[in-house]
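Readers of this paper often ask what the protein records in our data store actually look like. The remainder of this section carries one protein's record, kept here as part of the documentation.

:::
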Amino acid sequence: MKRFSGFLIKEFLHILRDTRTMLILFLIPIFQILIFGYAIKNEVKDAKLGIIDMSNDNVTKEITARLDAAVDFDVAEKYFSYEEAEAGFRANKIKAVVVFPENFANDLGKYGSVDVQILLDASDPNLANLINSYVNIILTKYAAENNPNSLKTIINIEPRMWFNENLHSAYMFVPGTMALILMLITALMSSISIAKEKETGTMEILLVSPLKPIQIILGKLSPYAVLSIVNVISILLIGNLVFDVPVNGSWAFLLLVSFLFIMLALSLGLMVSTVAKNQQTAMFISVLGLMLPTILLSGFIFPIENMPVILQYLSYIVPAKYFLIIIKSIMLKGLGLSYVLNEVLILIGIIIGLIAMSVFKFKVRLE
């Protein structure tokens, strides 16, 4: 029994002295519960609304004020035509547009019912359904509180889905899965590959060879770049042929942007490999610092607008967020470079910064 007790104490001490094991045991669960607790929300908060008010009477103004005052919505734009509203959707300024017809107050008082149209950006079908339900609740409550002539007042909501009329969930998951797979193959696998060379001692052999550091880096990363391009084409073809996910924009531009994201993911993997001393550390950093943010903070599954402010700010440093905006704009909205230029420039800037830091560290230090 004393031998077993001694062995047990030794194992406890071994674990407690291992910083990496302690981080895995305690930091990851805490991080996950905080992120999942704040990020996973099934309600809408501060969704950007547009208004087309063809009546412009006191009733429509009061309803607009109620929508704006609700925690769920922020009336961000007022339009005068459907063309202006469509431009707002394409520029990602709004998530929905409430359309009040002419003579709204008069028809509501005279007939006791009136139709209101709501246009929804259904590129995120879950968010579109939530917004539609919330607008229904607010307008139904207003109608119940304002019954002219003691008659039952009815405001009929007519939803119209844009960019995904049938609310196919594949329209959301195919682009998100592509970002996740590219991050997995390129960043995670490339960082582990280089860390393995350092851990086994073969990196020193490569460094004393006639190859320059930049050639070693390109040699290690190029296979993952090629495999990732094959994956991109496979995902797009399966999404288009099996799940009917359209590519309304340019295929060439879509592939170019995908290659840009591959370069970014490779740069992240290279950066991780310069910090990690072994494969275990590289995997830990990649999973915690790259995979989880890609899933939770990119807008892939959960709308960023619903998250606490601090997580919304953190999402600005998640590259997958910008990639998803770009490919959804190309695939579902048929947009070109002019609409997503800011996002493309952000990705290019991140790539340049990561490569510069990684090459410098790779040259001056090998631990």
